Amino acid sequence: MIYPVIRNNNLNGEKLNIKSVKICGECIELAERVFADSSIDTNGDFLIEIEISNTRKTTYIEEISKITDEKYLLNVTEKGVTVTASCEKGVFRALNTLCKLINKNELKTGECEDYPLFSTRGYIEGFYGKTWENEKRVSVMRLMAKYGMNTYFYAPKDDIYHREKWRDTYPETEYESLRMLFNEAKGNFLSFNWCVGPGLSYKYTSQEDFDLLINKFKSIYDMGVKGFGLLLDDIPWEFQYEEDANAFEGIVDAHVKLVNDTYNALKAIDSEIKLAVCPTQYSGDENGYYVSKFGKGIPSDVNMFWTGEEICSRVLTVRESQELLRSTDHRPLFWDNFPVNDCEMFQEMHLGALIGRDKDLYKACEGLISNVMEYAECSKIPLMTIADYLWNPVDYNPDNSLKNAHTEILGEKSEKFGYFADHLGVSCLSKYSSAFMSEKLSHINFLLSQGKTEQGFEEFKEYNQNMRECLVMLQDEGEPLFGELKKWTKKFGMCCDLLDAIYNAKKDPTDDNMKALAELTEKYNSDGTILTGFCLREMAEKTIGLY
Length: 547
Known about the structure:
Layout: E1 8-10, E2 20-25, H1 28-37, E3 41-52, H2 56-59, E4 60-61, E5 66-67, E6 72-76, E7 80-85, H3 88-103, E8 110-114, E9 120-125, H4 134-146, E10 151-154, H5 172-187, E11 191-196, H6 207-221, E12 227-231, H7 242-247, H8 251-269, E13 274-278, H9 289-297, E14 303-306, H10 318-328, E15 332-336, E16 367-371, H11 376-391, H12 398-410, H13 414-421, H14 435-449, H15 453-474, H16 480-484, H17 486-507, H18 511-526, H19 534-543
Parallel strand pairs: 2-3, 3-7, 9-10, 9-16, 10-11, 11-12, 12-13, 13-14, 14-15, 15-16
Antiparallel strand pairs: 1-8, 4-5, 6-7, 6-8
């Protein structure tokens, strides 16, 4: 199976073993690029014919009663494939699906009709911490475009020109870097949205500050950007200037005026400009005074970010979406704080799959934007599961999606990587981790308690050996993902040492083995990096008789 899962898939006929293709029809240059990126030769005989057809069949999604430019049709015969879409973006989606089918040897004759259920699907660099290098940004962009995301928000908290120096335009080098990023997004059919967060020092009664703000937007617009974000999150709830306090009844009134004035100024520049805003209250009570007045006070076509019941929400539901709409006249654009691991979560590594989001959420929101980690390579794994969910939440399977993400990133190394990834599931979505280890250690304890010592110790030895082999693999600095995981790999090494010590103490409970186990247990527990679940500590402490 390929991911995201195709919506209406009737490609269930004869299996075709395709090694190379021949492209004809429209969008040939785009097709050659997509096939080249997927290492598929385009000098073959299997015909890929591309047709542009702007009809109801290629543009309308019944489930959400919306027109889309991302729907496509595939008709596969023994001689070739006809790709039909309304525009280049739809063709791009189709070709990426086709390349996955060919590379996985899953292309069969028949027909399919595919389209996304969430309209806005993407991610935001909105974390606190070291900003990504552009090389990493491009790598993530291309992967997310391949998996069907269509939106990118640029808003790194530690970009000084985003918050601290919001009044200043970008210097030439940084400006050209942003331009390159915008062009890359455009080439991968990602809507590029540049955001600014002026609220730490903005004076709401200052015409000069407002002019500087619009000038900053205008400078980014001049490179071709038409998507903007005004972020008022994580700023003081009280006025910082006496003039502001005298001019407005409350902070929400100042924010409503700022959004409306910004909206009107941007629309005067170009009516096609789109604006998204993040209110200062962006989570919690959907009926709160601030968010209700804020939402009802700003234009209806301004997208409003919302993180859910919590800043990092375990669940996102249709119910809360409907309640926010009733309260604010705005369907939420979810700012999903997963997989981000900044602030108090810095000891965690969030490599699990997306869970806890309603399958019908697409019916009640504008879309979902995932906030990523400062670790770009690590972010790819959960982002791929998020992309799968956003395209087709009805058929989304988090376990299968996560396995696919491991394979996409690591290839043959993915199976061994699972011994490590088993311990990196703790996040706002779940406080449980190490499911495989817990099951394995419980089974080993059962065998030992039933007198099946030889089998128990043999399985224990095998498990420890696999963990060690995984540790050796993780120390390969040539793999970009492993380079970002050094902190957790170090703790994983302690885990392997502790497992060996438990094995030795259970098999031969001498004073020396018990002492070594006690020392390693203390060392492991004193390291604050979050790795394995309770099961390892429990087994270690039971072995040395702490309880």
